[in-house]
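yo

u said u wanted the structure for the complex thing, so here. seqs first:
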Amino acid sequence: MSPATVTILGAGAMGSALATPAATAGNRVRLWGTWLDDEPLAELRAGRPHPRTGVLLAAGVGLLDAPGLHAALDGADLVAVAVSSDGVLEVVRHAAAALTPGTPLLLCTKGFGRRPDGTVDLLPPLVAAELPAGCPVVAVGGPCKANEVAAGRPTAAVFAGDDPAVVAGCARTLATPAYRVACSGDLPGVEAAAATKNVYAIAVGVCHGLAEAGGEPWHDLAAASFTQAVAEMRRLAVVAGGREETVLGLAGMGDLEVTSLSGRNRVFGARVGRGEPPADALAAMAAAGQTVEGVPAARLAADLAARHGLDLPLLAAVNRVLDGAPDPAAELAAAVLPS
Amino acid sequence: MSPATVTILGAGAMGSALATPAATAGNRVRLWGTWLDDEPLAELRAGRPHPRTGVLLAAGVGLLDAPGLHAALDGADLVAVAVSSDGVLEVVRHAAAALTPGTPLLLCTKGFGRRPDGTVDLLPPLVAAELPAGCPVVAVGGPCKANEVAAGRPTAAVFAGDDPAVVAGCARTLATPAYRVACSGDLPGVEAAAATKNVYAIAVGVCHGLAEAGGEPWHDLAAASFTQAVAEMRRLAVVAGGREETVLGLAGMGDLEVTSLSGRNRVFGARVGRGEPPADALAAMAAAGQTVEGVPAARLAADLAARHGLDLPLLAAVNRVLDGAPDPAAELAAAVLPS
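structre next:
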């Protein structure tokens, strides 16, 4: 393969992490930061580790800050988008004018969004609507923690899109011996799983918080919650236009497992399980710059479920917990244990 | 419901734990210990916690030691068997003469065994062959850690057998608000999942051991291993005569999750992941009285897979690791990451 020019939009944890496989695979790599990424960019420019991953930037990666968006995109063969879900549409809108038609856009951002009419949709169609014609969206899923991708530890990613040749091309560009990529044609399934796993990782996190508070494990409830989560993720993926089998693979069960092991959604759930009011936990994490993607996703997933007449007891329980239900353990137990 | 007489055979962790729901549900409960259970019986008789669960025995439970087997079984309406897999057939053989025909036998012991001709089979048919005619076997699965069942924390169990009325009767006898029971007609699926999850929890444990050794998470590899484990458990359940959907529920994915969170199989895997030779880790755990059920199950599952022509890369990798393969991380990565 001749080297490609890979531009990564977003210099947060996952954006900077993706520079590791992109550079290791022999590409010319540019990492562009949003107006919110000045601090990590300054650290990386100074040769210090990224504040979120604790890992040094891969060698040879060009750094650009917010005003350099169009320069970052000039001549890009592949554009990866890894900004937070609340900023992604704005960044894509700004980027669109500088994209060469046909350039694939690799979407690392996860979550749901709303269409102009207010109904809930997955991010790829909302992103695609902002792009020039002929720029295909390829979604990234699978159990990939940014710090591990950055450090080059073994990781399985899933790239999904409508055109198998485009998906395979993106995989060839970015895959390395450590960062392995499975290709999928089920874009809605991968996206739905990626968005909903954050919601359900909160539930598993609550169980771990109960254990931390009481000094005794609540593993049985955690495991029953995990199982119910996968069952509900299967149903949500189907109403989003995806396939159940996708949820049963790396992009669903695998991503839920890794998200339940660590990360902000688990941390948030654990704080709630330890007895902190959800609003306080969320505010404290927001003050520390930590977005908990599963919280808005829980609301949007409930909208999606209601629109399709799905009865998803664990999703409803998570939303009640977010609303301040006084006994999170009882909410989860009622939702996930056999009746 | 009128109270039943419930006899539990085996006073190890799970046997003594099951006394909690059995007594809470209002039954007359007897707990019988094998010739290996003298120490926990002595602790329980002295009013101290069980040495394995750390939990006091439920009030009113009668304790009997090895010579009292037939007295323990006299008039029993339900017999639960919770001795280790290497002793279960011998205990059942001794118990058979004292069982009233028609008494259901609830099998908590998990694993594979060998038929007289040497081929591998699940435990229930091997146990049934030792029983008087008309004593149905009901298998227990699901994410149930003994210490949590003993303490009365929320737990989902799965009872599986061929006769729905018998399974439902066992569930009615033992279920409590904390110990919830789902009924299943898929005995081979539940049993196959229960036996194989121990094997795969070793793999997940190796990843956690790699993390402990290096001080950096290997969650991505753990999650990919978990996902591949469920995929292989589905295939093993089918060749054992069970259903894939059973593996995707509490008895499969749920039990794998809880077994990957804690327990001897995870602990053994973590020791290997930290660099201890498997034979040394196994010997050290055996010296501490800790059976690692997943180790013999890995060999027997490989036999079963080979007989049915299944190619299961993670099962093969676990067996190579048990054989002392020098780089467990590389074995797992080759087996579970996309190629």
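DSSP finds 16 helices and ten strands in chain A. Chain A touches chain B through 46 residues (CB under 8 Å).
cya
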